[in-house]
What does this fold into?
Amino acid sequence: MKSILVVLAAVLALSLANDARAQEQAFANRASELKDRPAYDARTLAPVAAESPVKVISRQGAWTQVEVGGRRGWMRVFHLRFPSTVESGGGNALSGLTSVFGFGQRKQAETSKVATLGIRGLTAEDFQSASPDPAALRKLQSWRSDKASAERFAREGKLAPVPVAYADASGAQGERK
Amino acid sequence: MNRAVVRAVVFAFGLAALPAAAQLDVGRIFDLGKKAVEVGQKMQEATKEYTVEEEIALGEGISAGFLGAVRLHPDERMQRYVNRVGRWLASQTEKPDLPWTFGVIDTETINAFAMPGGTVIVSHGLVKRLTSESELAGVLAHEIAHVLRRHQIAAIQSDAGWSAAATGATAIAADQIARRGGGDVMGLKTAAAEAGIKLVKDGLFLRPLDRGLEYEADRIGVVIAARGGYDPYGLVAVLTMLAQVKPEESGSSITFSTHPSPTDRLGELEKFVPVALEQYARHPQLEARFRQSTGTR
It folds into this structure.
């Protein structure tokens, strides 16, 4: 029994570690449903009221595995709203920027993520001292795939091309170009 | 070649190329609506002036400059894998025969870039946060869409200050291309490389595309991924991941500073993802092949 518990604990720890980056709070952005698996024809476990807080476990395509009201299941990704991720790290330094860029009327939670020009990542400085590297470009180009090997690769992955038209800006399906 | 002409080409390209790399996606700072329409109109007029060959040369210059600042990731197997995914997707588009080139850069920041002419770069920091080939396909397809619609060139020419210079550069570049023998490196390509480094130094990769263009690339990208036989929700899954990344985790906020917020993008995408695409949501995601080929867990 004890060893089973240890194994269980290990499995749990591992899955927690795997999911660590996804352990986040989100909210239902409308009335939705908790499904028993990530599929449209899945069984509905429970209704989810708009604005319910949910814990995000993992993601799979159009679906997000969540925990809500002590139950675990799947919700459509479009039915979730994720709180801003910058607020905690960005703090007050950003609020000045939001007004500079004319974001005054918008909610901070929506805008804080785009108003991060004040933070310079490593690469921003790296670019300042760069000089062109044609050798690296040649190396990059040596990794190109040709059409035929890409097709082989797709077949190996059981990927079959599907004719799908681009959607225009109104959401309507246009002719395939 | 006349030195003054060389300098003129360099100068003109330098200006012209400034915003020419499209960046995966997360945000601009000015208000869209009208602006997006203007960009679209100017794009119509302006992009006509670049031939495909000019576009490719310009993109190579930008890439050479870019690679002077950022190292390629040494894992050749991963590089070739990303190229196969990208080439397969590009083959499903209206420009299957551009010299499509895909690369992973050795940085833990989260970003992806498209250069004119068909070069697409993703950061290792982004790759390692993905969980499947369909997510990678979503990212690559978004960048491919920037190339297809020549968004980078549109951005150049939507700016009054650059468009005059860009027009001059185009004329000179066209002349150069006409005279260029096979494999000439000293002509346009050198000028393009110089232009590339200048624009990189000038903060090209901090400069966002118009928000409307990012949304357009999302819409097109989802369709391209579906055409390739992937679960088209890969990009959607990536956006939800981005929505949850903390800035201290991302190592850099360039992605977030140059693209609309992931939440805004999801909202836009939901409006435009054709309902018809839902039927492909069970198409392969290829998690295992992705993990094996990229060395992610």
Remarks:
- Chain B touches chain A through 109 residues (CB under 8 Å).
- Strands of chain B lie at 22-23, 101-105, 112-115, 119-123.
- The CA atoms of residues 27 and 242 of chain B lie 12 Å apart.
